[in-house]
Structure formats: structure tokens, C-alpha cells
Amino acid sequence: MIPSKRALILMVIDFLSATFAWALFYCFRKLYIEKTTLEINDTFYLGVILIPVLWVILYFLQGTYADIKRMYRMKILGLTLVGTLIGSTVIFFIFLLDDSIQTYQLYYQSILALFVIHFVVSFFPRIIY
Known about the structure:
This protein is mostly helical. It has 4 helices and no strands. The protein is about 75% helix and about 0% strand.
């Protein structure tokens, strides 16, 4: 199945917003959770490429790109909310659980920050489009 032009545009929007959200979250995690200096290294670049691809795959499996013309605001809100909840949980358990932190409460701050940053950064471009 070849995606429509509108679906491809939405995929690009989702990829760019996920890239921006991951970069913001990476900065937040390094500065406030781990309390280290911000280093742009290979891990950052790998995350900026890999994580947005995973988000687009999740949204594709969710059916976000199936029928763009029939999307309405509440459906976009629901799809983004559920997708962000699932994706943030998966990313947390796969990539973030092995971080060196001082207390377990920082895990809560980390997953909450990932959820909020990704939801806000990805929802508004979707609703505008």
C-alpha cells in the first residue's frame, strides 16, 4: 500500500516533532535528572535518528496514517495520547531504565517529562496540519 501525499506529509511532521521532542528530553535528562554537563555525542545522534523512526512506526501501527481526510480533532487527540503513553512506556523500559540516577523518584520525573514533552511537541503540529 502506497501512502497518500497527506500521509507522507504527516509522517514527516511526526518525524520532525519526535526529533525535536527527543532532543529536548535528552537535554532535560542530562541537565536536570543526571545533573551532568550536556554533551552532544554519538548517543545523542543515534537517539535523534532511531527514536523518531520508532515513533513513526508506532503511529503507523496505530492507524494514524490510514485515512487522513477523515481525521478530526478528538481522534487526533486520542491517537496522540494513547500513542504517546505506549511509546513513552516502551522507550522508558528499553532505553532509560539503565540510567545511573540517585533516587527512584527521578525515574518518575524522567518518564513524566518524556510523556509531556513528546505529547506537547507532537500534538500541536498534528492539530495544525
